[in-house]
Amino acid sequence: MYTIQNAVLTVGIDSKGAELKSVFHQQHQLEYMWGADPAVWGKTSPVLFPIVGTLKANAYCFEGKLYQLSRHGFAREQNFNVEQQGDQKIVFTLESNQETLRVYPFPFTFSLVYELVEDTLIVSYVVKNTGPEAMFFSVGGHPAFKLPLVPGTSYNDYELVFDKKENAGRWPISKDGLIETSPDPLLQKTNVLPLAKELFQKDAIVLKDLESTSIKLQSGKTPHGLQFYFEGFPYLGLWAAPGADFLCIEPWWGIADSVDADQEFTNKEGIISLPAEDEFSVSWKVRFW
After folding, report:
1. How does pLDDT run across 101-122, given as a tens digit for each residue?
2. pLDDT digits (tens, 9 = 90+) for 145-181
3. Cα gap 147→241, rounded to integer Å
4. Residue 148, Cα to own-chain centre: how many angstroms?
5. Whole-Å CA distances, 70 to 187, 202, 230
6. Residue 185: which domain range?
7. How many helices (H) and strands (E) does the chain have?
8. Which residues are within 8 A (CB) of 116 and not within 5 positions of it... i.e. 6 or more apart?
9. What pTM was estimated for this model as a whole?
């Protein structure tokens, strides 16, 4: 486990998957991250790369060849190298290798950057195309925050507050993990989503085309909460395992295949095309109080 810290926060990250494991607020003596109970869900904040979500039949086609790739891609199971470490910043990097090229035929370097600024953690994804042709990919986050955050409160005491009023439907997920073709009503001229475990009985809440660029997790029964900033990400997922005491707030640049997807990788919704030798970067951040 690697650690960065400042006067407010101590953050722990595992080199496997460059996965965020702990955010501890020193002044409040409060841990914000889910503890990764393997009996429920053994992850805390997996990175999603080079795809987000599920492919139709767990496969995609590129230049006439069919490739198998499991849900959310392979990066979360890979060991990242530490390229740089300071007191308040650390950089993890994964390079393409024989194993990745068998399922994903693009040379790349993929870096996760964790940086602390006062009471805020900034997480950046940097993708470099090291190959001679354009590469296609998606990338996203999956951080799980424990809920309830403090003793004496319950899951239903909390709500999500978007920074703008939204008219946004929930895009259903099929039994095969694919996005259905039309949304169900969810947010109608409101910026508040009261939380309940029943929201996630049918998998994640998938949101597209939000006006908001940040969301607060808060409760009237405690002064503690967080604000999650996802500017630059066109999709947002909200998820918890059935009955679990956590909430994932997931910024995505990419999305699962739709039920009517043609499996051509270059046609995939939300896919990023990165020219040869070019670089892509995007960041999300969380302020804790």
Report:
1. 999 999 999 999 999 999 999 9
2. 999 999 999 999 999 999 999 999 999 999 999 999 9
3. 12
4. 20
5. 31, 20, 25
6. 2-288
7. 1, 22
8. 4, 5, 6, 8, 9, 11, 88, 89, 122
9. 0.95
Question: CATH number for the domain including 83?
Answer: 2.70.98.10
Q: How many CB atoms lie within 10 A of CB 59?
A: 15
Say how many domains are in the chain.
Answer: 1
Tokens of 215: 């969301």
CB 113 within 8 A of CB 139: no
d(CA 137, CA 54): 13
Residue 263 · residue 56 · CB < 8 Å? yes
Strand 30-31 versus strand 59-62 pairing type: unpaired
Angle at 221 between CA 215 and CA 227, to 5 degrees: 20
Amino acid at 195: L
Contact 113, 126 (CB under 8 A): yes
